[in-house]
């Protein structure tokens, strides 16, 4: 279980201090955050839970959120950025999550565009960003992050191999320490979205943190389904895939390793 007083003290001086909302059990932390956002909740408010009954990932995929085994957290942001920068937010969150896992568990994370956290070939976490635009800007964005921490076994029906921080590190990782590291990293990364130099560096930084962004043969699933070799990110954070016919800029969807022909 989390120690809320210790968390608040560790986050003193950050935008998150005094804005932590913990539930032992909830349907979805993203649902909680979205509802609060529509009622005017403050920038930097954080919802996290010990268990989610209806956790979800991108594309409404279910995210198994067993009690006490993972980190399930959603952060409300009201960033003063143009809507055109919004696609960079999941990438910035991925960089923040990778840094947090490195700090708390000593593990390297491979970022699979647009929102998966991998350790080696196995998925250890994911990111879901849900936002509302207002005019040419962003009214609010909810950044949901789920990370497998203590899990030792996984549902055999999962289509992708999964892992947890404990399994990879060979020791028990403190969820409290991971959450503090995550929020501190996320604050740094989201502040970077306000700075032109930091914004332009995000695609290159993600490419450096990922084995999937360049030179990987992939299948794209979603509205721009295709098969080809990844060729980096554009300035908006969209993935370029070179197919047999053309260079496709993938704006939405996901990728997986292409089967060998």
Write the SSE topology.
Blueprint: H1 4-10, E1 20-26, H2 29-38, E2 46-52, E3 70-77, H3 88-105, E4 110-112, E5 116-119, E6 122-134, E7 137-148, H4 165-169, H5 175-192, H6 196-208, E8 214-221, E9 226-233, E10 239-242, E11 247-250, E12 254-257
Parallel strand pairs: 1-2
Antiparallel strand pairs: 2-3, 3-7, 4-5, 5-6, 6-7, 8-9, 8-12, 9-10, 10-11
Helix pairs in contact: 3-5, 3-6
The CATH top-level class label of the largest domain: Alpha Beta
Strand numbers in spatial order across the main sheet: 1-2-3-7-6-5-4
Average pLDDT reading:
93
- What is the CATH architecture term of the largest domain? 2-Layer Sandwich
**Main beta sheet strand tally, sense and closure:** 7 strands, mixed
Q: Estimate the strand proportion.
A: 25-35%
Low-pLDDT residue intervals, each spanning 5 or more residues: none
Structural class: alpha+beta
Distance between the termini: 48 Å
Helix content: 25-40%
Structure characterization notes:
- With 261 residues, this protein is α+β, with helices and mostly antiparallel strands.
- 27% of the residues lie in helices and 31% in strands.
- The protein has helices at residues 4-10, 29-38, 88-105, 165-169, 175-192, 196-208; strands at 20-26, 46-52, 70-77, 110-112, 116-119, 122-134, 137-148, 214-221, 226-233, 239-242, 247-250, 254-257.
- The strands form two sheets. It has a seven-stranded mixed beta sheet, with helices on both faces.
- Helix 3 (88-105) runs antiparallel to helix 5 (175-192) and helix 3 (88-105) packs across helix 6 (196-208).
- It starts with a helix and ends with a strand.
- The model has no long low-confidence stretch (mean pLDDT 93).
């Amino acid at each position: 279980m989390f120690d809320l007083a210790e968390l608040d003290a560790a986050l003193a001086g950050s935008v998150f201090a005094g804005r932590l909302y913990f539930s032992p059990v909830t349907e979805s932390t993203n649902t909680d955050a979205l509802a609060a956002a529509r009622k005017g909740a403050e920038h930097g408010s954080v919802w996290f839970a010990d268990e989610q009954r209806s956790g979800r990932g991108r594309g409404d995929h279910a995210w198994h959120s067993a009690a006490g085994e993972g980190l399930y957290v959603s952060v409300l942001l009201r960033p003063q950025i143009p809507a055109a920068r919004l696609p960079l937010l999941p990438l910035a969150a991925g960089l923040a999550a990778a840094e947090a896992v490195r700090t708390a568990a000593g593990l390297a994370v491979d970022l699979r565009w647009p929102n998966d956290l991998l350790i080696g070939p196995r998925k250890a976490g994911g990111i879901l960003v849900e936002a509302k635009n207002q005019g040419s800007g962003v009214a609010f964005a909810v950044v949901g992050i789920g990370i497998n921490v203590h899990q030792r076994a996984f549902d055999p029906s999962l289509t992708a191999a999964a892992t947890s921080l404990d399994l990879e590190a060979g020791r028990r990782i403190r969820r409290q320490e991971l959450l503090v590291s995550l929020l501190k990293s996320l604050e740094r990364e989201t502040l970077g979205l306000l700075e032109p130099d930091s914004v332009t560096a995000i695609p290159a930084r993600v490419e450096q943190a990922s084995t999937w962004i360049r030179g990987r043969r992939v299948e794209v699933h979603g509205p721009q389904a295709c098969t080809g070799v990844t060729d980096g990110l554009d300035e908006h954070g969209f993935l370029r895939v070179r197919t047999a016919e053309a260079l496709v800029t993938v704006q939405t969807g996901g990728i997986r390793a292409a089967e060998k022909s």
